[in-house]
Structures are given as C-alpha cells and as structure tokens.
Amino acid sequence: KKDFIIVAIDGGAAAGKSSTSRALSSRFNLMHVDTGSFYRATTLKLLEAGVPAQAGEALVTGLAGLQLDTKTEGNQASIVINGWTPDAAIRSEQVNANVSHYAAIPEVRKFLFDYQRSQAEIAKERGFAGLVMEGRDIGSIIFPEADLRLYLYADPAKRAARRAAEGLTDSIEQRDKMDSSRKSAPLQVPEGATLVDSSELNLEQVVEHVSELVSAAYEN
Ligand code: CDP
Ligand code: CDP
C-alpha cells in the first residue's frame, strides 16, 4: 500500500473540479491545490501592473517581480504572491474575462511549472497522505506520473447553470474554447485518465464514485 499518492484532476470551467477536490482532500487527508487560482492570481497581479497579455519584455519583467510561496490552512493550499494571499478578487468578472489570455502564453505557464511540481514535496513535508491537484494540464503536463488521473466532464449548459447559480457572469464556453485550442498545454483528456461525467450526478454522487478510485490508487 502506498503512503503518498498524487491525484490529478482536469476538466473545463465549472465541471466540479474544486468541489470534488475539496471533498477528496478532507476524506483522504490530501493537500488540495487549485492551479486555476495560480493563473487567476498571476493574471490579477499582471493586470494591476499594467502588463498586457502578450509575450515580451514587460511580461518577463512583470513575472520576475512575483515571488511565490505556499500557505496551508487545513487541507487547502494557497499560493502567496509577494506576501499577498489571493482573495475573492481573483474570481471577479475582470479576471474571468482575462485569465485564459494570460494562461495561453508559454512564459506564464513556464513561470508556474516548477512551482506546481514543488507542491508534491510541500505536501509530503507537511504530513499529508497525498496531493490532489486540479487544473487543465495536470495529468498531461504537470504530473503525468500521477497515481490517478481524472477528467471531469459535464454538459456545457449544466456548467453554465452551475456558475450562474453562484451569481457570476462567466463566459465558460469561450474560456473552454481558448483553453482547448491553445498551443501550449491545451485542455485535453490526459492519457490513461478516467472520464467522469457529472452531467446527471450531484456532488455527493461524484465524490462517492471518485473516492473508490482514490482508495484503489493507494492499493495499486
Ligand atoms: O474555476 P474555473 O474552472 O472556472 O477556472 P479555474 O480552474 O479557476 O481556471 C481559470 C483559468 O486558468 C482557466 O480558464 C485556464 O485558462 C487557466 N488554467 C490553466 O490554463 N491551466 C491550469 N492548470 C489551470 C487553469
Ligand atoms: O472547479 P470547477 O470550476 O471545475 O467547478 P466547481 O467550482 O467545483 O463547481 C462549479 C459549481 O457546480 C459549484 O457551484 C458546485 O457546487 C456545482 N456542482 C454541481 O452542482 N454538481 C457537481 N457534480 C459538481 C459541482
């Protein structure tokens, strides 16, 4: 039996990645890392600094000025940028509208690559039984060696309704289109991933199903 596993969860916007990861993290004592929040927080910092979403010197300088740390509260890990812990501002409509543009730039992805990989060591050091990391390219690029790779899927209309129920305007389809069609680490079903369709399942049912896969991953 393994004493530490990595669970990679990918999927489109509002597919249920965060709520599923959070539930798994408390059930199995995993450290939960939401890499979408990394892209969102980086986007907000670059917008604040007036750095446009294009490769170039301004971007290189802007990124070089961002010092990254990790804070954990219970099972939740959070990125800390120059001492700032991201808050609700990273879920704003302005960030929703801009994040996929910044996330498509290879320099931005490179900037976050080592930091994302380092979360596994941090999870071990801090005594967790594993890491659950969610995003768009976790099972394909960041942790292709993950013990369990999941791809969460839900009907786009269902996902739009879920996001709307949170009271937010978010052009989910447009973001998915950009995230799936970009050259650098596009959203795709990673090799060997298990597809989980939650269109007709509530959160509890998804978590029940996925928990069996996590238990099995400790045994394999
Ligand atoms: O919460 P939601 O699913 O709407 O999005 P998110 O996970 O917070 O991610 C926000 C955006 O960050 C995505 O639309 C992608 O453009 C980008 N992202 C990425 O490119 N790669 C990741 N591993 C995670 C997020
Ligand atoms: O992290 P991601 O953007 O993929 O999705 P999320 O924030 O976990 O979920 C988006 C919304 O869908 C939340 O309001 C969840 O409560 C809801 N949800 C649902 O209704 N049924 C599911 N099976 C999963 C999530």
From TrEMBL:
Name the major location. cytoplasm
List residues of the Cytidylate kinase domain.
Answer: 7-214
Which SUPFAM superfamilies does the record match to this protein?
P-loop containing nucleoside triphosphate hydrolases (SSF52540)
Per the record, the similarity remark reads: Belongs to the cytidylate kinase family. Type 1 subfamily.
Please state what the protein is called.
Cytidylate kinase
Q: Which residues bind ATP?
A: G11, G12, A13, A14, A15, G16, K17, S18, S19
One MF annotation (Gene Ontology) recorded for this entry: ATP binding
Q: Which GO terms describe its cellular component?
A: cytoplasm
Q: Which gene encodes it?
A: cmk
